[in-house]
Write a structure and sequence with these properties.
Elements: E1 7-12, H1 16-29, E2 33-39, H2 42-48, E3 55-59, H3 68-77, E4 81-86, H4 91-100, E5 104-107, H5 112-129, H6 147-153, H7 165-175, H8 180-187, H9 191-207, H10 215-224
Parallel strand pairs: 1-2, 1-3, 3-4, 4-5
Helix pairs in contact: 3-10, 7-8, 7-9, 7-10, 8-9
Amino acid sequence: MLGRAPHSIGLLDAHALVLDGLGAWIAAQAADLRVTVCARSWPDLIRDAQAWPEVLVMDQQLGDSVALEARIRICLTAGTAVVVTGDGEEPALERRVRAAGAAAYVSKTRPASELVDAVRRALARRTATGVAWDEPAGRSGPEGGHAAEAVARATPAAVAIRFSEDEEETLRLYASGHSPVEVAMVLGTNIQAVKNSLKRVREQYASEGRNADKKQDLMQRAAEDGYLA
């Protein structure tokens, strides 16, 4: 590992004790890894991450309204591999997260070394394939397709949807976790202008057959189109 920068790892868990303990273990025992972001909720991660990590270790239960599969796919379109953790050995949950594109599922009953091994395997696959996940076999439909298509979908130049400059910046800020009031303050405009921009963005997505009525849906659309990358 001499001369090579550590790989970036993110930790997402509702329990501070888990974040502190796992972060300390990685710092002491895994010199090839560096925790670059710790968050206790999905909005905190979106807001606090300076850049998406190479791998995100994510608890399956965060107590928010964003579906587990949606969180995984948003990470994938941002170029981040995902290792999901849970409270026990749950084969059905493991199949579920792998079907969504996660690299692995690791029970919290297992030692930290096994979790880190799963992270390293995800990194090795990421390096070998040039993408952040292994495409699940047989996956198809509007959320599926080949890995290369998913990468292209996350690239701004490949985005079919086009917005005005104001609408695009409003979308970036809002989908990154800012409230409409905060977006208005950042852009130096008023709340009604922000609401109007978001309305036009949602209407444009609807015209393309891509639901964006709820905030978590709009966050997913923004990630798919590269606005959170």
